[in-house]
Amino acid sequence: MRKSYFFLILVFALLLSACNTKKQNAKNSDEPIIENVYLGQKPPGLIPELFAPDIIQTEHREAAAALTPDLKEFYFRRRGGIHKNNTLVVVEYKNNTWVESVVPPRAGEPFLSLDGKMLHLGNKYRERTNSGWSEVKSLDAPFKDIRIMRLTAASNGTYYFDEASETGPIRYSRLINGIHEEPKMLDIDLGQWNAHPFIAPDESFLIWDDQRESGYGKADLYISFRQKDGSWCRAINLGDKINTEFGEAYGSVSPDGKYFFFHRSFGGDTGDIFWVDAQVIMALKPN
């Protein structure tokens, strides 16, 4: 009788231990899993955070973020220290780790096509090949002689771009029968200095940095949404959670539409890349 009693106690203890183990495993499964995308970072909420500070942040200037569609290659420009001029850098996932390298020889402001096959660098570009990126090529007319800082493209091939030699215009050029038309001025209210446009893949909104007396700092990020009749709504400041007394620029949305990336400049060769949940910009869309 006594042996049976102790046997029952032992069985109960084992069952209790197994139950606790299952509970512990369930608890652990709720913890965020670091995947091989976004440089293995825990996603941000509605307050901007430094992006991958342990991987890309230095005491110098990092700006102009661009991600490949699979989210495993992160391109940006660095300036400062040994990099006297803007240098194009990539951090990519290789052999189960994140590896940083320089992308020679040109450091134009990067933008990746939606299929990941073209790396735009202003009025130049590189094409993806089986062995890596091609040599740097120049866009044909009518872009070849325009001093483009940043060029981004919608899913239908329409280009949106700025110009370094002028303070005002943001222009666009539609792709018609495989040929880009002569650029046209964008009919949108702009400020004193407008640069680095980012167009949504479906052209539903445009983000750019601008300098206005009504802004928060040296440069602020603005957004305009396309309306049902095809016109653009008034420029909307992204607000004091993103814009500060410093200079904010190079806004872009990740290829999956989940996160908003931008640069904050602290002057000279110092500045960082931040990210935040894209809900903060979509919440600004007029009803």
Automatic annotation (TrEMBL):
InterPro entries per UniProt: WD40 (IPR011659)
Pfam families, per database record: PD40 (PF07676)
Signal peptide (residue range): 1-18
Keyword vocabulary terms for this entry: Signal
Keyword Signal: yes
Name assigned to this protein: WD40-like Beta Propeller Repeat
